[in-house]
Give the backbone structure.
Amino acid sequence: MTLNPFTRRDNPHLLVVSMTGVKMGDRLLQIGCAHGGRLAAVARKVGLSGRAVLVAPDESSAARARKGAADAGVLVEIAVAPPTCLPDEDASFDLVVVDETSGLLATMRAEDRGAAIREIARVLRPGGRAVMIGAAPRGGLGALFTRAHSGPPFVASGQATVALEAEGFKSARTLAERDGLVFVEGIKPREGG
């Protein structure tokens, strides 16, 4: 047994939790759920003083989320709705995490993707953060087969940063690319800023 506190054997989602910057008491919205365990790990951080909500684009994503939350013993409110029409009030959340690892936004038409990002901005409080988690491009032989069938992933290609900036987010940037994931962040401007 290793005593290294940074090992991820007990929590394979430590990187995702760290990169989202979620903390106790946050009001968290996640859009999309490619992995229920990843959702539960992030949602656990808000604690009882916070709120965790998932908007799933379809029932299969909602089922993954329910199972992940139940397995982890985490309370997550789950709604099925398109990302272009979020069922929450304006300025309801401190942090919006978009799980783009299954291509949720990448498969949308450009105008729908823009509408989804405007919805994210609407439900974020001023100064709130949007974090998109996408799949990193594959290397080696996997890259040859992947490129033959599709273009670069939405988040890893830089398109997510451009889309966030186009909808008024400030400081949009790639935070990291590690362990097969890419993290992009944008900040909703404060009032008058």
User: Anything to note?
Assistant: The two ends are 50 Å apart (CA to CA). Residues 146-150 have pLDDT under 50 and may be disordered. The chain has one domain: 14-187.
